[in-house]
Amino acid sequence: MNVACHINYPKVSIIILNWNGLEDTIKCLESLKKITYPNYDIVVVDNASSGNDVEVLREKFGDYVYMIENDKNYGFAEGCNIGMRYALAKGTDYIFLLNNDTTVARDFLAELVKIAESDERIGILGPKIYLYDEPNVIWEAGAKINWWTGGISIYGDREVDIGQYDKVAERDLLSGAALLIKARVLERISLLDTGFFFGYEDYDFCIRARKAGFRVVFVPSAKIWHKAAKARNQLPAYHETLRQVMAAHGIFGIKMRYRLFRKHARMPPFPVPLVSYFLIYWPMRAVQLLIFQRNVKSIVASIKNIMRELSHYFKMALGKNKRQ
Fold first, then answer.
1. CB within 8 A of 160, min separation 6: which ones?
2. 53-61 and 22-32 are packed helices; what angle lies between their axes, rounded to 10 degrees?
3. Within this chain, do residues 94 and 28 fall inside the same structural domain, yes or no?
4. Are residues 153 and 295 in the same domain?
5. Residue 84 and residue 94 in contact, taking contact as beta carbons nearer than 8 Å
6. Judging by DSSP bridges, how do beta strands 215-226 and 169-170 pair with one another?
7. Is the pLDDT confidence value at 258 over 70?
8. Distances (CA, A) of 218 to 43, 173, 200, 215, 236
9. Quick check: is 70 in a domain?
10. Residue 6 falls within a domain, yes or no?
11. What is the number of alpha carbons within 13 Å of residue 98 lying toward its C-beta?
12. What value, to the nearest 5°, has the Cα angle with vertex 266 and ends 260 and 270?
């Protein structure tokens, strides 16, 4: 483990979540071994992989990583939270959440920390993320949220990098695939919201940080490469986890986007995603339950959910439901 300490190198704890992704995790850790930043440690949280991932990683990497072995799959948010709690208890200065299906540039962490240390108002930072199989094609350079339409626009989505995103810039949102977080941000706003299970927890976290007064910053000189949607693509092979994700997301992920907007949007933009949710998600869900599953009880439960959500909305509209 690389633990050289210096006053100019605050401690960074890198948290990697592994779930049946042994080969990817090994490649990720091997790329991290080459980085130039001198003061970091690595916590690998295994989210109840079905194979011998933990044993192989312990044998291959020894004390280079600290392994946490979960007794079940807690989802992305809580899996990361478990690792972050451990790192925070050890007194780290920064948390870096990193997807296991990534590889990193040698200087990526040094570049992120350099910008982070330049301004105490900066709380969260993200690198320029490329597609693993197309190394010069951008996967994400941060994102912008439109509170009126419910839209989320990705900067650089599948664009060839010709320098169009080469300036350090504030963003509304950054991807949880690679997220550097100052410890004091977590102390102020807490950890990831486990209600999202898998997806949108990173966007929720960025919004909460910005509301608390922290800057969310994109750092283009820090670069990583991502095998996009690798974990999602393996879900069909794990039926129980697939069921959990589908239950959390709803059809086409509308449920999670609705949850994000219901949690954070203010009046008057909030009704737009609300109406879209009821006009698109619930009708499609009812058709699914009635035609494909013939599950009348679930339709009744869905109607009750609609009435409950409408009740929440009207209370808010009347000023009876104050949101923080």
1. 136, 137, 138
2. 20
3. yes
4. no
5. no
6. antiparallel
7. yes
8. 24, 9, 18, 10, 33
9. yes
10. no
11. 31
12. 65
